[in-house]
Amino acid sequence: MNEFYQGKVALVTGSAMGIGLACAEAFAQAGAVTVLADIRKPQEQAERLVAAGYQAAAYECDVSDVSAVKAMIEWIAATYGRLDAALNNAGIQTPQRPMAEITDEEFDRTVAVDLKGVWNCMRYEIIQMLKQGGGAIVNTSSQGGVTGFPGQAAYIACKHAVIGLTRTAAIDYAAKNIRINAVCPGVILTPMAQELLRRNPALEQELIRDIPAGRMGKPEEIANAVLWLCGPQASFVDGHALLVDGAFSIH
Ligand code: NAI
Asked: Which residues pair with residue 181 across a beta bridge?
């Protein structure tokens, strides 16, 4: 439990598994009423938290669908009265291919989820946070938000854009007591990363060789950063893109 998060309301998108699930668990364990949102309703995940004595609820939402996102934020406001912390984390990978071989459909879907999804969520989160006088938002970018990565042009473009969106929105709402930051995970062992490694097993040793820390990260290590960014210790941290990547992107 964490005194600050007691009675606060938190939302995590893309929280059925991986980084989002670890972050939702961390918010709930810190004492926040936590809404787990995902394109597939994370009912079991929320029930597990409730059974362990925490406050959590599951919500089905495709973040690329703006009316579904609007309805979700309105449901949170109607049910819990407020939204204090939001992690816009839902994301998809594009099949790994050189840029000119990525189809328009693949590009459009990646942008719809990884960029427009963040845009949709931020817009309605901000509208709610303005009504209640403040809040904190974190958007999940990537180490690929500050570096290139072979075969991932659409994904990497979105992750760069998420940082630009974060910085600009942070400036727009800094005086309104809404802080907006990004977290940039390195290679974190989640189902998304496991799928990438399954498709390209040689990548594992290659990736680890390039991580100065000599290992992949754990979802909990991203959760620690996210709770810090949303909490009082980060009260003057705004518009920042926080790398949590074992020094990958700076070496
Ligand atoms: P994951 O694939 O394990 O989980 C992603 C979650 O997002 C899933 O539960 C999925 O159902 C959900 N989702 C997908 N499309 C959605 C949509 N349209 N609406 C709502 N939910 C949707 O992924 P992981 O690894 O946990 O990644 C989470 C975030 O972290 C993503 O934004 C990813 O790009 C980012 N990231 C992950 C890294 C890694 O190494 N795992 C590295 C850098 C960034």
From this structure: 138
Nearest CA to 183 out of 39, 36, 12, 60 is that of: 12
By most ligand atoms within 8 Å of CB, the mutation choice from 190, 198, 211, 218 for ligand 1 is 190
Which CATH number is 12's domain given? Answer: 3.40.50.720
**Total of domains in the chain:** 1
pLDDT of residue 200: 85
What is the per-residue pLDDT for 145? 98
| Residue nearest ligand 1's atom 1 by CA | 192
Catalytic residue among 5, 59, 124, 155: 155
**pLDDT tens per residue, range 21-77:** 999 999 999 999 999 999 999 999 999 999 999 999 999 999 999 999 999 999 999
Q: Is 155 a catalytic site residue? A: yes
The range of the structural domain enclosing residue 108 comes to 3-244
**Cα–Cα distance measured from residue 59 to residue 145, given in angstroms and rounded to the nearest whole number:** 28
177 neighbors 241 (Cβ within 8 angstroms): no
Name which residue sits closest to atom 44 of ligand 1, judged by CA: 142
Domain assignment present for 18? yes
